[in-house]
Amino acid sequence: MISTGSIAEIQALISKFKSEGKKIGFVPTMGALHDGHLSLVATAKEKVDIVVCSIYVNPTQFNNQDDLKQYPRNIEADKGLLAENGCDVLFLPSDEVMYAGRNTIKFEFGDLDKVMEGKFRPGHFSGVALIVSKFFNIVLPDYGFFGQKDLQQLTIIKKLVEELFFNLEIITVPIKREPHGLAMSSRNERLSKEDREKAKIFSIALTEAKSILMEKQSSEAAKSKVESLFANHKAELEYFEIVSDKDLLTKTENYLAPDTVLCIAGFMGNVRLIDNMYLSGV
Ligand code: PAF
């Protein structure tokens, strides 16, 4: 695995691979890698010749400075995992390289960044879109691999690619779960052992809400089930939404259509977690 923090070096490598007719897959990460990230790398490995990963904790997508400070960083272990799992090129830029004091461009996505995460994390998706655009322009991948766990991010990145004519295809990789159901996330590292066990309530609540809707009961019934499960497990619910993955707007009918996805966010202890589940499939 070649590892570099230099844009010029990455660009030179990419042009060499492209001149050899190789297809490039890109897996952006913020590090603290877990099996969810490794499944992105494995999916990329199957589809392309060269897998480029990045590790960069992007400051512009954090609206809370404490969250940025506390974000887990594990760089040596991460490098080992990526090398063992087939990453060919690792891009590890510094803040100076990515921003050099520049942070003036803002993105707006209409309704897409006003709901759910957008409501609770103002400016977050503008920061994500900015860094992902920079990465796409540097790496020029044929495919970008993103996890379904960050469903709203995925919808927004698809929009970004479409509107800015990025010449690549976004591939969605399904959520990886711990054996008791908790969606894998770097933030899980911040949960105490006890809270990590209790955090299974997020996926249990989604599964229960899903079966209520599949039995053609109302969205109110699904919502009140989620609320009571959270209350019983002393978890704090921020939102539970039934949306279309196309526009992220609340659905009020036709729940059994393939675009329906249930999204949830809340706190277990002082750690904020999100999860989602399609009504059809996982
Ligand atoms: O999903 C993430 O880890 C980040 O939002 C991303 C896409 C790497 C951009 O910083």
UniProtKB/TrEMBL annotation:
GO MF annotations in UniProt: ATP binding; pantoate-beta-alanine ligase activity
EC number(s) given by UniProt: 6.3.2.1
Pathway note: Cofactor biosynthesis; (R)-pantothenate biosynthesis; (R)-pantothenate from (R)-pantoate and beta-alanine: step 1/1
One Pfam family linked to the record: Pantoate_ligase
Enzyme class: ligase
Binding of (R)-pantoate, residues: Q61, Q153
Example GO biological process: pantothenate biosynthetic process
Reaction(s) catalysed (UniProt annotation): (R)-pantoate + beta-alanine + ATP = (R)-pantothenate + AMP + diphosphate + H(+)
InterPro entries: Pantoate_ligase (IPR003721), Pantoate_ligase_C (IPR042176), Rossmann-like_a/b/a_fold (IPR014729)
Binding site for ATP: 30-37, 147-150, 184-187
NCBIfam families given in the database record: panC (TIGR00018)
Subunit structure: Homodimer.
Similarity annotation: Belongs to the pantothenate synthetase family.
Further comment: The reaction proceeds by a bi uni uni bi ping pong mechanism.
Descriptive protein name: Pantothenate synthetase
Species lineage: Bacteria, Pseudomonadati, Bacteroidota, Cytophagia, Cytophagales
